Amino acid sequence: MNLPSHAQFTEQIGTTFQISFAEDTTTDAELIEVSELKARSMQESFSVYFRTQGEVSEQAIYRLTHSVLGELELFLVPVAHGDLGIRYEAVFSRMTA
User: Fold this and answer.
1) Measured distance CA(12)–CA(83) in Å, rounded
2) Alpha carbon distance 11, 34 (integer Å)
3) Backbone angles phi, psi at 10, to 5 degrees
4) What is the pLDDT of residues 9-57, one digit of tens each?
């Protein structure tokens, strides 16, 4: 599975993804932030942050669907919970050529 690049995620800030936290249900999640791209000689890394409403789900691999980026499986970690909802983080670390 090819995952989107830093630039591709950045283009989608403010758009809605659907996350399958439970088998037959999806939850809307807004992509609210993409961290700065950190590039080293043979590696690049960045994080993406989603905001949802409802119950906090534990960290795990979840299926996400997006109208432009398609279907993804990401390891999401809940990192904040407050009045604005629940914030989840997915971290990307890739080897570069």
Assistant:
1) 23
2) 10
3) -60, -40
4) 999 999 999 999 988 889 999 999 999 999 888 899 999 999 999 999 9
